[in-house]
Here is the input.
Amino acid sequence: MRSRWIRRCRCASRDGIGGAKQLRFSSLFVTRFATRFFLFGDNVIQGDIVMKTKQYVFACIMCALAITSCVSTKETYGRAGSDNKTLIYQLTWDGNNVKGSLFVNEFLIAGLSGAQGFGTAPLNVLLVGDNEVRVELKKADTSKASHFKFGVSQFIHGDVAATTDRGNLLSVEKKDNDFSGSKNVKISRKFTSSLNFNSRFIGTETVKEKEVIDYAKKIYGLVKKKDAAGLEKEFAVKIEDYTKAFPVHTYGEFKSSLLSELLEGSLEKVNPGRLRAKKTGPGGNTWHVVEGDKELIRKKSSGSSSISEMTIYIGVVNGALKVIR
Here is the structure.
């Protein structure tokens, strides 16, 4: 069985109401790991709780909740108001004995496997103005009680957020009586945001799966050759958008972090014949390339058997395929 990369969150924790574990994210943690989480998301361990997450979960708290900013620009993307505060849209969830999936604008945020778990994810780069959180769940063990709740909040960086906070934009809770027997529970809630990257998630209608897979092979080849210039060119849209979404960091900082992660360590082999491109995202206009149930880019750190994965989302920008998320 292959090893998975486990990231440990350095957070201050305490028991919340009813004994629920509450985490408040420290500025030291955010500052030190912001740019690394920009790249890879994987299994996240919180005490005794392990849960599978995707790329932006704990991409986290990513320049997010506690970094101070002294940059002055006009209101745009992550900026808001006359004092140029950076807005952070944050998703939190908490559940027990449920399995299923949690999506934001049709991007998979978390897969839930039945164990007690909670998590949080900054949503800025996935937002399209009119946004949807969608959850599909059912009991993992029909003989045991189940619950699940989630919320979305809008913060200004510098705020302190806890996993037990209820969302100030939306908040939903499902209790055991909502999960009768093997009943599937489907939840959909909408919220609006000043951030809007909708233009990134259009224009793929005429693109065929084979074209996307061929482009993904090109990306894999650039990583294999350690072609820094080529990688920057193909990932430029993603880097630009993260800079707009989280303007407390610069393009150069995100680029440096991305190239560091892509060029270091050894690249796992892929079977080109098993590569598939699946449509996802708003309107199904973004392609996600995988090899079976594995991501296209999988790296092994020097001297370690653990494997990290990078989710590759591909779209059309100015008529050309690019890595957009």
Q: What stands out?
A: The longest helix spans residues 228-245.
